[in-house]
Amino acid sequence: MVKYDVFITWSEEDNAYIASVPEFAGCIADGQTREEALQNIEIVAQEWMEAAEAHGRAIPKRHNRSE
């Protein structure tokens, strides 16, 4: 399966989980649970890729991962 890395951390300041895709500059989402943050980052990452394509920007290569 082909995926991007997602990092999820807890933010005391925001009182929420923060998810990010390091390959996508500024691609960050939050959630009250880890699962919600993951669901939200999937949406934001898809929108990030669509915006990059629409503006002719390169999308970083994906990592091949096996599960």
Secondary-structure topology with pairs:
Blueprint: E1 2-3, E2 7-11, E3 16-20, E4 28-31, H1 34-54, E5 63-64
Q: What do we call the CATH topology?
A: Double Stranded RNA Binding Domain
> Which structural category do the helix and sheet elements fall into?
alpha+beta
Q: Round the Cα radius of gyration to an integer and report it.
A: 13 Å
For the residues shown, what is the average pLDDT? 91
Q: How much β-strand is present in the residues?
A: 25-35%
**3D shape:** globular
The major sheet is characterized as:
3 strands, antiparallel
How would you briefly describe this protein structure?
This protein is an alpha+beta fold and 67 residues long. It has one helix at 34-54; strands at residues 2-3, 7-11, 16-20, 28-31, 63-64.
